Amino acid sequence: MLDKLNKLFSGITIIITFWGLFWLLNGLDKFFNGSFQPNLEPFSTNSVLISPDGENKVIYESHPMETIGWFGVNRDAKMIGYFNRLGLNKQIALSCLYFLASIEVIIGIAFIYSLFTKEKRNKIIRLTFKISMAVFFGFSIFDILFGDRMELWEHGTFLILATIHYVYILFAVPGEEFDQLKGTTTFVLTQMRDKILG
Prior knowledge:
Blueprint: H1 2-8, H2 11-31, E1 35-38, E2 47-50, E3 58-62, E4 65-68, H3 75-85, H4 90-116, H5 121-146, H6 149-172, H7 176-197
Antiparallel strand pairs: 1-4, 2-3
């Protein structure tokens, strides 16, 4: 029983499921923006103004604005702001956003699809990881150009994580790429060892 569960929930399956859901939900997030509304709940009060006559009567409350809806960040507004800095109009910004969202959804579907296919599973996984790394690289360049250091930090972190997972799967599921890398790596490490010890 434990062997069956261990095989069903292998490390590779969990990693692939994570990346599939990551890309799928990230892509869908860009299509389903919440609306930006004030949060008027009593617990959300940021600050108050009290009447100056000493009665401690609240005359003004300050509440935060929040994205309300099923999905997180309002990417429309963020992307329009980026493109506005370049003097490009709203339609170009939204076209780019939805194009990128479509690519993310396709990557997510490819990862999920790889869980159910037997024949070319490893090739699909390797390709989707390479595409993921390329997308994160592109996002990082975009973040640098627009000066968004927080997004750059996030995309750089995900680029490193995708690269680590790609290398893990490359070594866990041998194939032609692995054999070439293994031969090269072994040769280089042997040469380094011989120089250090010799």
